[in-house]
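Q: I'm teaching a short session on how sequence maps to structure, and I want students to see two examples side by side rather than one. Could you give me a first protein with its sequence written out and its structure tokens following it? Keep the formatting plain so it prints cleanly on a handout.
A: Of course. Example one:
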Amino acid sequence: MKTLAKKSASPSAAKQVAGFIAKFDPAIAKLTRACRAEIRKRYPSANELVYDNYNALAIGYSPTQKTSDCVFSLAIYARGVSLYFMYGRSLTDPNKLLQGSGNQGAFIRLEDVKTLDDSQVKDLMERAVKRQKPSFAVKGPGQTVVKSISEKQRPRRPE
């Protein structure tokens, strides 16, 4: 696996991420761009940690450049996009929105960018952000950092 670190000030980081997203089916790519824009609008100081992995493209949102500090991420697969909560199993989920069988992480499938506007999803996101230590910066732009690119990858479009 090749590991790279590029800051958002670098046009190459933006171009790399655009290229990663462009590998997907146009509908998945469009949903990814819309969800990413919505999350950036809500949390402009969050750092985007990008992993173009074997199974999926992951774009994590973190107050630092450490993966362990990610609050949530977009997990982009050939067949869909999910909002993955790194520590989702420790969130109170009275409406049973969180899916997955992991002991730590949990996710919500994003059929549409409007899912991010659902009040229950917004509440989960806000509670995850509020409990995060360290917290997102109050002001200032976050950086986009390409953390790794796997040389081998599953197909990014449905077979």
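Q: Perfect. Now a second example for contrast.
A: Example two:
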Amino acid sequence: MKVVEWRGKPVWILRRTPDMLASLPKNDDKVADPHSDKVYQLPMPEYCKNETRSRAEHKEVLVVVGICSHLGCSPSSRFAPGAQPNLPDDWTGGFLCPCHGSTFDLAARVYKNKPAPSNLDVPPYMYLSDTRIVIGKDEKGDA
């Protein structure tokens, strides 16, 4: 995972493994908004309205604003699956907000019955090449 700054906020760029991607469908019934219909601060880009919440041509790459939708803390990565402190025994990997315990899967979707009301935001972004991303701009223009 790489962290960059956009509009003064951390943006996470995470390259997910095939195992990480395979874990996402297992969480659909556990997350509060599996299809990212609920807006937090940014409207969901149409090209990321899918289970991986990423562009189809690079579905392994997640790009999200690393700010919890509860009170604005920055969750920490908890990628290792399995039981861990403050996490369920069937944890498949994701993010844990240390402030109030909200948990997010590897597509940054919030689990049900947590303080955070929404998934983490996906900013507009586009690929300049297979290895370069611009955040805050896409085919529709600047955000």
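Q: What should students look for in example two?
A: Point them to this: The longest strand covers residues 9-15. Also worth mentioning: The chain has one domain: 2-142.
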